[in-house]
Amino acid sequence: MMITALFVLFFGLLALGMPIAFAIGLSSLIIIFVDPTMIPYVVTSKFFAGIDSFTLLAIPFFIFAGEITTASGLTARIIRFADVLVGRFFRVGLAYVNILSSMLFAGVSGSITADSAAMGSLLIPSMKKAGYDADYAVAITATSGTIGALIPPSILMVIYGSLTNLSVGQLFLGGIVPGFIFAAVLMLVAYLVGRARGYDFRVSDIDGHSDDPYWKELLVAFRGASIALIIPLIIVGGIVGGFATPTEAGVLAVACALIAGVFFYRTLNWSKIYEAAYRSALLTAVVMAIIAFSTLFSDILTRNDFQDWLLGNIQLVSENRYIQLTLILLLLFILGLVLDVTAILIMFAAPLAAIGVTLGFDPIHYGVIIVMVSLLGACTPPVGTLLLIGCSIAQIPLSRAIGTVSWFVGAQLLVCIFLMFVPEAITWVPSLVFNR
């Protein structure tokens, strides 16, 4: 009864246009004060407990590192390196540049919105100028932005690990292979859609190519983007090697980005650093507000045995654990149509993790799959953050991009279902480093 009332209140407040963090918080507060089994002081207790985590301190540092690298001009250097590497050789070269650039930038930021906004602001206009349709450019930019939550570091992996008491280092490593598979599948769909539309742009046109030999141009581009390749190695190496916690690794990422911008590229000044810090503070406040309010929501679900209720209803459909997990993934996908990915994970991570244990899935395999499917909502209307960012940059209505992005999102959903049956693709890398 209380679970039903909680969801009705929450979606009702969303329908009235209330911001998601406040809709989560207000619906939770009403239930807490109406339910006689709940004690009101749990509000302050759970609210602050939700964000009172040393691991979650990694979030503002990863956000700040991404803002610093963007302010220092590293984003353009990443795109230039990807352009020289793959842009000139393939039929839809700029589409491949877009996807590869997202992979490289993901190793610095860990934020899907920062990734999509940074890549989109430079690549969507370039793709339109080169002759690609705007909806095609938006679809690729939005879906490739999801790779940022899989290639380490990943803010969403930090959140999931913190809420479920799983190793963030193992989750980071577990996302590497799925991230590469996502990229490969997106490139395949980009090629097929591009071929169907008659694209034949084998030479990209971001800022022109020099007259130097290819090997020299590639070396110069690699040198310019080398920081983007070094930072993720420092982060993952520090965590995996036991030299740093995720939070300390975030501090290292900020330090590397600052050193690169101030001393290596010499493009950072105090004004740019201040603006990057200001933007990081705003984004961190939004994320932490969602985390704090969602902790209340999740606690109500757990106290009312939501995981048992959900699993019981799923078992009415089938006793096969893979069919049960498929139904859970479809539920997450549907929730992603109307909820932000961060809110989904925080509200449902704990109860869904308990279901995963009951079903007998490896927790790292299960957790990465949950994050992957939750991500797809960022590319689907009406609340798809990455899709909205891309449409805003391309200056096209959301309705124009829906048809095209559905091909890419559909392919990603198939990848998630495939990986559900092949846990080794996710657990293989963590098992090489950790004793599992």
TrEMBL record:
Protein keywords: Cell inner membrane, Cell membrane, Membrane, Transmembrane, Transmembrane helix, Transport
Superkingdom of source: Bacteria
Record-annotated TRAP C4-dicarboxylate transport system permease DctM subunit domain positions: 7-424
Bilayer topology: Multi-pass membrane protein
Subcellular location: Cell inner membrane
GO CC annotations, alphabetized: plasma membrane
Transmembrane segments: 47-66, 136-160, 172-193, 220-243, 249-268, 280-301, 321-339, 367-389, 401-422
SUPFAM superfamilies: ABC transporter involved in vitamin B12 uptake, BtuC (SSF81345)
InterPro entries given in the database record: ABC_BtuC-like, DctM, TRAP_DctM
Primary location recorded for the protein, binned into one broad class: membrane
Gene Ontology molecular-function annotations: transmembrane transporter activity
Family in the record: Belongs to the TRAP transporter large permease family.
NCBIfam families: dctM
PANTHER family named in the record: SIALIC ACID TRAP TRANSPORTER PERMEASE PROTEIN SIAT-RELATED
Assembly information from the UniProt record: The complex comprises the extracytoplasmic solute receptor protein and the two transmembrane proteins.
Role this protein plays: Part of the tripartite ATP-independent periplasmic (TRAP) transport system.
Protein name: TRAP transporter large permease protein
Organism: Roseitalea porphyridii
